Amino acid sequence: MKNMLIVLFILAAGAMGKAQDSTVKPFLVKTIGPLPYLEYGTGDDRLGGAKMTYLDTNVVLKVVDSTGTDYKVQLSKYHIAYVSKANVAADSGLRLGNENLSGSWMVSGEGKYDLVSISLPNRLPYKSVQQISPSRIVVDLYGVTSNTNWITQRGTSSFISSVWYEQPEDDVMRVFIELGKPVHWGYSIAYDSLGSRLQIKVKRPPESLRLRDMVIAIDAGHGGSNLGASGKNSKVLEKNLTLQYAKALEKLLNQKGATVVMTRTTDADVTQPERAALLRKAEPDLLISIHFNSSGNPAVSGTSTYYRYIGFQPLTQAILKRMLELNFNNYGNIGGFNFALSGPTEYPNCLVEVGFLSNEDEEKRMLKKGFDEDVANKIMRGIVDWLRAMD
Predict the structure, then answer these.
(1) Is residue 148 part of a domain?
(2) Which whole-number Å values give the CA distances from 106 to 115, 198, 203, 263, 324, in the listed order?
(3) InterPro entries given for it (predicted)?
(4) What range does the domain containing 286 cover?
(5) Angle at the Cα of 319 (from 316 to 320), degrees rounded to 5?
(6) Alpha-carbon distance 310 to 264, whole Å?
(7) What is the pTM of this model?
(8) Which of 203, 238, 257 represents a domain boundary (last residue)?
(9) What is the distance between the alpha carbons of residues 383 and 389, in angstroms, rounded to a whole number?
């Protein structure tokens, strides 16, 4: 026993030594790629870890540790996050000041957007959240201390009702953007080409809330080598059904006069970053992503809708209410959803899981001729209900 304890002590000491040897000396990196993002922790599931925020490219992050495929980064004195090593690159020319002071703000508006522009000394990280009742966008700027003494409001903004900031921590500046109406139509956050101003572009409500004046994006889930789920008895592939149902919705919306953008129209491999880039360019008013569910328990059934941001929940609730008219069980309205196309903040979005391919009864219904048109009709009516609620 004594010898065993000695061996265990030596092994434990060796493990501690390895842990100490693996400690990373802090260094700076910058974000790269089309959709770099931060995660809250090292947790993971089939959709990846819980995302904190998407970031612009060339945002400077301070690496303080390494774990597997991620770096641990220090956002501010009391805030950390994790970033994929594939989403950053080291650069010997990067610098961060001991104190990063904010400068003047400008609030303006033109075309489809209102704009809040904030002067910053570097491309520093940030996180945003949506709030409701009242409707606000709240942005935390990490590593930033206020030296803002001018918030110039040009009077050209039409959707933003007021802006202000707080300094909840010495190195965290919190920006509040209150909206003039109780609805979120989307926003983007990025640095200007010089990297000296952070720009928060807030989408104004469309001038018309009629379907024929809307640009609606439809995403047929999966495709190509990404098969998705398969039917319990028919073995039908989810990727084929999503495209069939997406085309049925496209046809119906075109008949109503809407402009429709499809993320895919064939059985093609289209990655999530490619879909997100396509949608960012198209600037839709909203996105509907169509999927079919599956469970290891064949008794599980029901239709469901999904959202990530609370400001986009009303769209998903309106569509679910209509989908339940098809006599599905209610599997739920599910928030905080970590799906890639639920992540962009630029437009309201809703993922629809029509039903369970693993459930024999629902599989039969979803393969029945004309049922794709029934589902398309309910999704369309849900969109109309959501739009009418804003009048």
Answers:
(1) yes
(2) 8, 11, 16, 35, 46
(3) AMIN_dom, MurNAc-LAA_cat, N-acetylmuramoyl_amidase_3
(4) 211-388
(5) 85
(6) 27
(7) 0.91
(8) 203
(9) 10
